Amino acid sequence: MCDERGYADFAAVYDLLTENVPYDEIADYYEKIIRGITDGARVLDMGCGTGNLTIRLAQRGFDMIGLDGSTEMLSFAAEKMPEAEWICQNMSKADIGEEVDAVISTLDSINHLESPAEIRACFKCAANCLKTGGAFVFDVNTLYKHREILADNTFVYDVDGAYCVWQNEFQEKDGRVLIDLDIFFEEDDGSYTRGGESFSEIAVPAKKIAQMLEESGFEIVNSYEYLTFENPAENSEKILFAAQKR
Question: How many helices (H) and strands (E) does the chain have?
Fold first, then answer.
């Protein structure tokens, strides 16, 4: 079942807003970690968005399934790689009808879930989608990043065909960042049409994530400072977790 939150306008500018993301480096990083846990090649990408990493991992020899709750995000993914398998389901309710060798969730997709309960449900879905011994690899933004970097800041993006104002509001009580996007789409005549999205990201302490993984049937292989193989620090902005289904 698709997610009623949709991300329609966000999907239209997502690739423009993430042009500077080092997708090839991230794909290489995930490939190395996945292959260190399992020899299998069937991989489910939960929260795949517009498919940028799904496609790069397919190019590296994985048999990929892309899953996202937004039909709009998936429509852009399918345009890039029509032959791939794309599934519209909420990450916390994922049921793909088979067991795969690895499940991944990249680019802080886990943070977009609504609550710790939804994150726990997502972890249980990941376990149900995995073969015994399969890998679950994902990254999350930390509470430090939410409090110190995203915080109450406003970011402005002037990209090809659109102008975006990204406004954050940090909530200390649950580590949540409320996000309002005002997006102005440039029309052929030079005028602009206004759109926008409102959503949030939640940050859960690393110890709580580890506990939820163990309760969901996983053994934690390691956790790293993102894009490194170093231990996370107090000021880590993003952490990668690598786990294996028991």
Answer: 7, 11
Q: Tell how strand 162-171 and strand 154-159 pair up.
A: antiparallel
Supply 201's token pair.
Answer: 């990201």
* Domain boundaries 8-141+204-245, corresponding CATH code: 3.40.50.150
Query: Mean pLDDT for the chain?
Result: 96
* Residue ranges per structural domain of the chain: 8-141+204-245, 144-202
pTM of the model: 0.96
Question: Is the alpha carbon torsion for 91, 114, 107, 215 positive or negative?
Answer: negative
Cα separation, 201 vs 149, in Å, equals 13
Q: Which residue has the tokens 């996945």?
A: 34
**Tens-digit pLDDT profile for residues 6-61:** 689 999 999 999 999 999 999 999 999 999 999 999 999 999 999 999 999 999 99
CATH fold group of domain 144-202: N-terminal domain of TfIIb (2.20.25)
Encoded tokens for 217: 């049937």
